[in-house]
């Protein structure tokens, strides 16, 4: 199969696919004219004849081929833009990766301990959001790498299919063109020939696009790998920062609970007198205080579990996107 593909591809290159495509498109009316012809057929009140139905289907297919040619042209332009930007992006990613490896943790326990609890919780929420954004970018990069790894096989198959389709269309076109010539009919106005010319041009353009994707695949895969390395390092640093923040928040919450317990029993004259009712209430209060501390610890644990659950959920989403 590979040998057949290579032979077909060489024949196509020797025949000059770009020139063939240009000639084929030049020999058909512009898109606006085809749209008008189709509208004229569809506006008829009487039931369409067999020839009119055939022309209607052919014009519809020709207009669809025009749209697909535009889409391929947009893909080619986007690909060329990515290829042209790749060297600069590679240099920037290498620089950012080196900086990230040398960069120490921006936050530490010392400078976090002085921050109020509300500010710490806001910092934590921002860190969680940033981590999710980094994980989403990682999923996109993983998808790009998977696409790059499978591109050679997919592109070769697409080239083979497109060349076979172009050859079939050429034979059908030549047969009908000869028939119309015998009947002294205009080949340029025939809807069926217009459709086949456009579809052949489309097939040849698909070959050109797949060839360019193959030639650019190595550079774009290198770019995706650099982005993945940088994102992996940033995600690791962000997770460390979240863990650091959560530890300081846990301590702040427990200190607040302990302070509230101490303030409730401080400088109370009834406690100093040792009144039985007050002593009994004090024991109840101590029991409630211990329960408050346990509740604080449970709340801290739930927050940690929630962050971890969000991280794992985002990881599952990454895998799902990559599989898709």
Structural description of this entry:
There is one protein chain. The protein is mainly α and 324 residues long. It has one domain. 89% of the residues lie in helices and 0% in strands. It has nine helices and no strands. Helix 6 packs parallel to helix 9. The longest helix is centred in the last third of the chain and has 75 residues. The protein is elongated, with a radius of gyration of 35 Å. The chain starts with a helix and ends with a helix. 16% of the residues are buried.
Describe the protein's topology.
Layout: H1 2-15, H2 17-26, H3 31-42, H4 50-102, H5 109-113, H6 117-182, H7 191-265, H8 269-273, H9 276-323
Helix pairs in contact: 1-6, 2-7, 3-4, 4-7, 6-7, 6-9, 7-9
